[in-house]
Sequence to fold (544 residues):
Amino acid sequence: MKFSLTILGSSSAVPTASRNTTAHVLNVHERFFLIDCGEGTQIQFRKFRIRFGRVHQIFISHLHSDHILGLFGYLATQTLIGRKKEIEIFGPPDLERFVRNHFSLFPESLPLKIVFHPLDSIGVSKIFEDKAVEVSSFQVRHRIPTWGFIFREKLGDRSLLIQEPRSYVYCTDTLFEPSLSDIITGCDLLYHEATYGHAELNRAVSTFHSTAKQAAELAKLAEVKQLLIGHFSARYKDTAPLLAEAREVFPNTIEAIDGLSIDIPVVFHAEQ
Amino acid sequence: MKFSLTILGSSSAVPTASRNTTAHVLNVHERFFLIDCGEGTQIQFRKFRIRFGRVHQIFISHLHSDHILGLFGYLATQTLIGRKKEIEIFGPPDLERFVRNHFSLFPESLPLKIVFHPLDSIGVSKIFEDKAVEVSSFQVRHRIPTWGFIFREKLGDRSLLIQEPRSYVYCTDTLFEPSLSDIITGCDLLYHEATYGHAELNRAVSTFHSTAKQAAELAKLAEVKQLLIGHFSARYKDTAPLLAEAREVFPNTIEAIDGLSIDIPVVFHAEQ
Fold:
């Protein structure tokens, strides 16, 4: 049973020749969840051979261009290829108006049925659940209202097999916020933005972003199993120093690269 | 003195793993003109190492997603990278409302100065001119109002050197329209859409598109020097049959491929 994350975009703000803006796809038992949707996300689906039809839920963290511009093309294509099944979109309250407004201006209609679920929680709240996964949202600290997401595997009868449920936490865009460690404690994979290196701490703070070192500090505080950093500023032609900086604090850190897939393996409880 | 076209996107409607939706960049004496702006155009600029700062005029043929979705990210990035110089956009009358509406919904503002020039001509009319080039628009026949563009080199004093002015005609999306041959007659390079192979003529007609054979027929009628076909339906995994079909009618045909650059060489009049 898969629990696997694929990176579709790892750049912040503006894309580079090798990094699109943010989008992730999480595969939980062959159910696919799209998280953020930067420009060109539908192109990355084609490149990395992920089938659109497998995605029924989309989660949007906040309303900055580099996290949502791909949504229009993604949805327009769903319509063009004849998708009938509805799509659920979880995102900031203004997202529905934003998307409907866009399509109302377009000569093409949007026959695709979309159900919007506005995020409005302050604390952690469950926003979606199916047979395989439970998803919760929580607020992070950015210039505009922004949410992180926790995806937690549901095992049903398999929990009898002393298998541990796996979890993925998505945390961008945000200031370093140590109080989040309670929420994400012990997760298998934490994605945390690392827009800047720590030498640019002032810039990170003034733009409500984090440094690679801070991402690692949160991972350490929360005792997560693995840290994935991304959302790199386009100023870093070489991101190796950011990865090194994070690993100094939290050795089990990897770097987001477009097309990278990370399988989170099944872990069994040690027998008592 | 360059007169060179670069293809940024050659797919119609939906992008594929190797073809973005439509965008072309024409370099006339190191002045760059962007023609249509499908999703991911700014990413193609990075990949093919074209500098944004060189583009001051954008030409938009019509308001279908696959020709304009990249405009929002393209303009947002100009703002982010601190562009000060204004951008002129020539396009359908509704385009200004469309772009301004999009940015008004966004938390980010659009400090970039944009001057919109609505296209409203029925016949051929000059819409732009600078030292290097003169641009005219003309209507083609699609489901919604759609314009083609003629870029004609200006030579100034160089015309004394018996050098011939070069020309590029952009013609998409459109039905086969033989009456256009008068307008585009003798141009150096004609880009004409070839969404379908001729076996799909009925589908081409019902969707107001052309076949590869029809594109070639227009090129032959208009006695152009070279034909470039593109805007291929994503149904064609292999576009070689479309190219072959066009070459049967008009041998000097080439196929649009993302990243392809076509230099139009200087031609001198034979001395009398």
